[in-house]
Amino acid sequence: MMDESSGRPLDSADHQPRKKLKLTEADKKRSVRMFGALMGTLSKFQDETSKTKQTEAAKRRAAVESRLQAKLKLEAEALHMLRAYEVEETNLKQQVIRKTDELGHLSELHTIKFANRLACSHYLRTSTSKLTDADQKEPPLTTYGRPRHSEQPLFWLPHKLLPEQKEIIENQRREAQAEVAEDQIRWEEERLAKEEQLEKLQSHRDSRLAEIQAEKARARANADPTSDPTTANASLNPMTNDSPELGRRQTSEIRQDTPDVANDNGRDEDAVEY
Where is the composition biased (Polar residues) (predicted)? Predict the structure, then answer.
């Protein structure tokens, strides 16, 4: 028999049907076991790959969270320190202002006291009435019902002075001048001591304010993201830079800076007028 397409005789084996392999029950079970083992290996490989990816992502997220938490902690501590420094600055300035006002007020009071003492010495005055034992038990009342603890003398001057009145006034003037001179000496010593204390307080304030400014600069440097070492390390880590979550978190952060307390230039704290 000839092949029509090729023109060559056909072999008897070519037109015989192929025999099907007969699988025994053991061969079928063996095939099932091999297929199950293959599927198990593939499934295990997929699980391990998925777990590895999840673990790496979790590690990256944990690293990002750790850096952000450390950064927020530094900023919170720096903000707390800045507020404490500002309170200390205000207290130092207010303390100097109070001492300066106190010294000026005392100087004004002593000036008025000395002037009144000398002015009253040019007048005659009434003698205070002596209280009896019954009056001393209960203080007398004024017109408005308030207790009057002492009788205030009245200062007066007649149109024409008698010789003895002139002598009284001269004695009063000499006594007043002597008393005022002694009081002025004592007050001058007290004023110099208070001025020395004020100068020491001002010197301490100035030195401490300079230290506070330096400490505030360091606190701001710690709170500044550009100087944060964790941020610097993150910029050098390619795995961290490839994470889109880190970029979103960093752009959403808000840094709170506390402005400096404005210096009180409207008042000279060191000036003391007398």
Answer: 224-243
Positive or negative torsion for Cα 36, 39, 44, 45: positive
Token pair of 160, please?
């024409």
Q: Hey, what are 167's tokens?
A: 């002598």
pLDDT in tens, 54-66: 777 778 888 888 8
pTM over 0.85: no
Instruction: Select from 1, 25, 27, 24 the least CA-distant residue to 14.
Output: 1
Count CA atoms within 13 Å of residue 248 on its CB side: 4
Q: What is the pLDDT of residues 17-41, one digit of tens each?
A: 666 666 677 777 777 778 788 788 8
The contacts of residue 225 (CB under 8 Å, 6+ apart) are 71, 231, 253, 255
Amino acid at 207: S
Give the integer Cα–Cα distance in Å for 19 and 22: 9
